[in-house]
Amino acid sequence: MWNYSDKVFDHFMNPRNVGEVESPDGVGEVGSMACGDALRLSFRLGDDGRIADARFQTFGCGSAIASSSVLTEMVKGLTLEEAAKITNEQIAGELDGLPREKMHCSVMGREALEAAMIDYYKRQGRNVPCGLLQESTELCHCYQVSRETVREAIMTHRLTEIEDVTHHTKAGGGCGECHHDIGDLIRDCQDKWEREDAASGGLQELAELPAAAVPVAAADDREGRIREVLVTDIAPALRNDGGDIELVRCHNERVYVRLTGNCAACKASEATIKGFVEAQLREFVDETIQVIEVD
Known about the structure:
This protein has helices at residues 6-13, 62-75, 80-83, 88-94, 103-123, 147-157, 162-169, 179-208, 221-239, 269-284; strands at residues 26-32, 37-45, 51-59, 138-140, 145-146, 243-251, 254-261, 290-293. By secondary structure, it is an alpha+beta fold.
């Protein structure tokens, strides 16, 4: 039998901030109804840029309800940068502790908050700031394996299958709920490999292309549209966070770019390239475009 603190019982029996924020600025969903754990967190910012309201909806156990309830109380009045520093251990601490077997409930709360903040930046057309994503967040709850451990294994051994990740880290060897997240990390790492390969050999590859294959005339309609979207839509959004972008060259469906300023050293540059730059170019120019970052 697990022992719960009075605070856990209080937030379970009298949960705060249940429901959904009206006209939210960000919404995050984690977990799965099929697996018996699902959490939806929404928030709204005030005119001062601080979280004015935060609410949750959950399908889960009492610990999930208590963790979500206390988290929505913790984030009120904070900026997104301040809220991003909240850890799942702090959530559990506010409840005077959780049983080890229920710590994943606080992890879900932190993940839902992260997802909601990412949703906010996507709605704003901005890249996700450095430090928002917590690599120390537990990815596999069955074996307590962090995102950082999984990412390091994938990058070090260039793993491409979930089964391989499980062999190296044990992540994904239990209930299987984290398989989707592991797959996302594999895809993110593969994108990074492509950029690293492009940085080391991509520019040489471009230099060896026949001149006719790399039109430089402004009359090239496709490249002209790419430049237009970069200049009018993408670059201004990046400059809001102190970054910028340069077009290196276009070749067929490949668009080689260089991130500068804050974007160049940002941990979220992968998300910026694929989730924003490539998405914008595919929407407004050509859905086959592949954006590759070079140094």
